[in-house]
Specification:
Layout (H helix, E strand, L loop, with lengths): L2 H22 L4 H11 L4 H8 L3 H9 L6 H11 L3 H6 L7 H8 L26 E4 L1 H10 L3 H5 L3 E2 L10 E5 L13 E6 L10 E7 L3 E10 L5 E5 L8 E4 L3 E11 L10 H29 L1
Parallel strand pairs: 1-3
Antiparallel strand pairs: 1-2, 3-4, 4-9, 5-6, 5-9, 6-7, 7-8
Helix pairs in contact: 3-4
Length: 298
């Protein structure tokens, strides 16, 4: 065997070994294809026949004792209508019924929240990133044009010198009364969140969704447990609700807000103490009245 042939063979053996190690250490592949098969109501024998492999071989793939070829991985992907990447890298058994249904219909999900996202942005004459302004009148089209450079380019822009130069910001005009002390019509500035796994529980964020457009809420990160975000309001009249990750387009972390309305002041410590004293007096008077009524009744 010539030198070049030996090099090619060695490289091929190395690739094959790497692939084998990756497959044998993969904790998701076997359970994933078993889940997808059982959801279709197919036996191992029926699935093996459809894939043109022996039943014993297919059983080994589910049990982790056999490794499919690359060609068979592609056929499995086509058969179950799930990408090879998700078959190998994602725990499909942890997904909700709605997420699995989307996958099986050929839909694409960002199951981890870590997907690389391309953000359309603008810069000023000095090549500094602008802060784009999204007013009420532009919000209806933002969920459609958020990734379109032409749409973003027509938004009003400005600069805030006190913001970090190495981060991306955008300002949205807020609707509704669900997030006091931020009043309706306030301008809320957010910092762009690339990796949604970094979302911190109990913190305010601006979320761009396919169904509801732009919403300003306190978030709870349920991506690992349920594949969604829990959105809560500071106004107790509004009920918390969950948004599946595939319905989320963008997330912006709250930085500050500008409002024409002065928020109602919180009670000072002295005022709070006086209120507690008055409440205690009222309780004592009520208790005394009840005792006296009891004695009279006796």
């Amino acid at each position: 065997m010539g030198t070049l042939a030996r090099v090619i063979k060695t490289a091929t053996d190395h690739i094959t070994t790497k692939n084998r190690i990756a497959m044998t250490s993969n904790p998701y592949f076997g359970p994933n294809i078993k889940l997808l098969r059982t959801r279709r109501g197919r036996s191992q024998e029926e699935t093996a026949l459809a894939l043109d492999v022996k039943r014993s071989s297919y059983s080994g793939y589910e049990n982790g004792t056999a490794e499919p070829s690359f060609d068979l991985l592609v056929r499995l992907s086509e058969y179950f209508k799930v990408s090879v990447d998700k078959l190998l890298k994602d725990d499909l058994t942890a997904l909700s019924e709605s997420q699995l249904s989307i996958l099986e219909r050929g839909g694409d999900l960002d199951l981890s929240g870590k997907r690389l996202r391309v953000l359309a942005t603008t810069v000023d004459k000095d090549d500094r990133e602008n802060v784009e302004l999204v007013p009420h009148k532009a919000q209806a089209g933002y969920a459609l044009g958020y990734a379109d450079p032409e749409y973003i380019s027509i938004l009003p822009t400005f600069q805030m010198p006190f913001l970090a130069r190495d981060r991306k910001y955008r300002t949205f005009q807020i609707s509704g009364d669900s997030m006091p002390p931020v009043a309706e019509g306030s301008w809320v500035t957010g910092e762009y969140v690339q990796n949604w796994q970094t979302i911190r529980d109990g913190q305010p964020y601006i979320v761009i969704t396919k169904d509801d457009g732009i919403v300003f809420k306190v978030l709870y990160n349920q991506l690992k447990e349920k594949g969604n975000l829990l959105l809560c309001s500071t106004n107790p009249l509004y009920t918390p609700y969950e948004v599946p990750v595939n319905n989320v387009l963008e997330v912006w972390k709250f930085v500050h807000f500008i409002s024409a309305e002065l928020p109602e002041p919180n009670m000072s410590r002295d005022e709070l103490a006086r209120s507690v004293v008055e409440l205690r007096k009222e309780v004592s008077q009520l208790r005394l009245a009840m005792e006296q009524q009891g004695k009279l009744a006796f």
